[in-house]
Design brief:
- With 466 residues, this protein is of the alpha/beta class.
- The protein folds into 3 domains: 142 residues, 3-Layer(aba) Sandwich (Rossmann fold); 72 residues, Helicase, Ruva Protein, domain 3 (Orthogonal Bundle), CATH 1.10.8; 173 residues, Zinc Finger, Delta Prime, domain 3, CATH 1.20.272.
- The chain has 20 helices and 9 strands.
- The N terminus is likely disordered.
Length: 466
Amino acid sequence: MTPSARPDRPELFDSALEERLARQAPLAARLRPRTLDEVVGQDHLLREGAPLRALIETDRLSSVILWGPPGTGKTTLARLVAESSEKAFIPLSAVTAGVKDVREVVDGARRRLAEQGQGTILFLDEVHRFNKAQQDALLPSVEDGTLVLIGATTENPFFEVNAPLMSRSSLFRLDPLGADHLRELVGRALTRECGEADDDAVEHLVDQADGDARVVLNSLEVALALAGRREAGAAGAGPRVTLADAEAARGTRALRYGEDDHYDIISAFIKSVRGSDADAGLYWLARMLEAGEDARFIARRLVILASEDIGMADPLALVVADAAARAVEFVGLPEAGLNLAQAVVHLASAPKSNRVTVALGRAREDVQRVPAGAVPARLRDGSYYGARRLGHGEGYEYPHDDERGWVHQEYRPPEVAGRRYYEPSEHGAEGEVHRRLEALWGAQGGDLHETEQRPGRDPDSDHPPA
């Protein structure tokens, strides 16, 4: 709260308090940017000429909602607005404030505007924590300009903030910080603290931060303390953070996971699930999740496996894999790890069949090698005017007109007629599929079309071919 917002508080007291807080504040607070140029990340909002930067620099900011994950700079931007604006700046936390607090801020803003001609900015952190009644209390003052609201939220404001308040505010979305931005922050912090760090220690801190500047700086502060205690009394310029310090600070062990590991581990994962070893599948899943592998990539591979290695032996496998993939998008990590684990167990324990995969390969090979025959006239579209005159649809037998719901007729061009692509196995539910198709087509199933096995890349890895 600035002196302009609380003129009754002596400046000397404010100065002394700020000095003591600066000395004992966490590293993340001590490194908080003092100008827009010092902000790391959010270039789409803060580069020269970007909309939010222009509004802040010209002090023409109207009510805004800052939406982004933790540690992306929402509070920092609000404080920079306070530094650059002539308006009074009042911070509130929606976690502890209520309607009474909001009304006091509104009353103070009105007095300030009437007596001093000074506007008021209300920074409301965690605005999504306000219920409808609390948000409604803000609405008239935001609408008539008594207050400029800066709301910060980690939740989707379209779900958590009232529509009338959203319609009167500009929405700016902050992105998680990239690895290069986090490395830059670590470098600044090491310079400020007169410390050094091994490259693998920095990479571990960055990898574990998940785009959160506060997390990486808090972890670095602990790692520096550990390094300083270990090196106490030793001659040198300052503490040097090792990988062991970084691991201890985060409470996590760094896993080796380079590009080759990515391909090798996903290959081991797929082979384990295909081999019906649920425990091995869970182990490799855990390895990938702990190393920070993209959960969407894991989910995609499970969806592929459900059709490639299980297919009609358990048609529900594809439904389960798809549900896990949707859960990754809807729930997110870490909780979606449970959904992935359930899918792994279901797919590993399901009966296996690759007959759908083989069948598609056979059909594709015919398409590539055999001349493309014309669509038989009886199968062509006969719904438009004049189609019947061309003979389209003539001779087609509608299966539902037969009491069996099926009639024997050829559905392919003569060039590939009678070729058998799909040969069901007896595994799981596919055994019933086999018996049903055999009862329908019987000896008319045609020749089994054998596909040639050709060397190529491992299908269980997304590694590019050599």
